[in-house]
Write a structure and sequence with these properties.
single chain, alpha/beta, TIM Barrel
Length: about 220
């Protein structure tokens, strides 16, 4: 199937259950434009440099999401244009995003990344760290970031029960945070291999790359 057919098929299957972030890492501007020509406008990258090059080259009505791990010294390169940062995994990073957003007189939407997987390689906050941030006076003083929700990645495993359990746990945290933050509406969980389970467990935003664009070109 073509990129166009793939993206239309997935968007049709998602219906109104979840928003789609089409993940374009390693993909060319030509391939991205094929997806863009279907009317899709939300694209995700996991490297700031690559995303910035594509932002410069592609139509300006694209909403760029940073879905990968963010190094604080790279925030300045995306602060001018990024629509949503999925991977805020520390308070230091959130403060840096706030600082760089201020330079452009912007408020940048962010998701706290939670560590829910049984893998050491995944980044993210634990529940205690999240509540420490939310309770701090310094967090309440930040004016150029807006916490829109949570993101998490399940363990990379064929054990569907484990994946389901981890997504369910994240949904519980999300429901608690929603009571504290009025703008907290996004639960970003689920990728090409597990997005159907994620939606069943409450996800309303999925990040899908290979099922749209095919395997990555490293």
């Amino acid at each position: 199937m073509s990129i166009k057919a793939n993206i239309l098929h997935i968007k049709n299957s998602l219906s109104d259950h979840a928003a789609l972030v089409a993940v374009t890492k390693t993909k060319s501007t030509v391939e991205i434009l094929e997806a863009y020509d279907t009317g899709h406008r939300v694209f995700g990258e996991n490297r700031i440099q690559e995303m910035t090059e594509k932002w410069k080259a592609l139509p300006k009505d694209i909403e760029w999401h940073m879905i990968g791990h963010v190094q604080r010294n790279k925030v300045k390169y995306m602060a001018e244009y990024v629509s949503l940062v999925h991977g805020v995994d520390s308070f230091r990073l959130l403060k840096e995003i706030d600082k760089q957003a201020k330079k452009y007189d912007r408020v940048i939407a962010c998701l706290f990344q939670m560590h829910i997987a049984e893998e050491d390689t995944k980044f993210g906050l634990d529940e205690e760290e999240l509540h420490e941030i939310l309770s701090s006076a310094e967090f309440k003083s930040l004016e150029n970031v807006n916490i829109k929700g949570l993101m998490g990645m399940a363990t990379f495993t064929n054990d569907e029960n484990q994946v389901r359990k981890e997504f369910r746990y994240l949904k519980t945290i999300f429901d608690n945070v929603k009571e504290r933050l009025t703008d907290c509406t996004i639960l970003s969980m689920g990728m090409s291999g597990d997005y159907k389970i994620a939606i069943e467990e409450g996800s309303n935003m999925v990040r899908i790359g290979s099922s749209i664009f095919g395997t990555r070109n490293y």
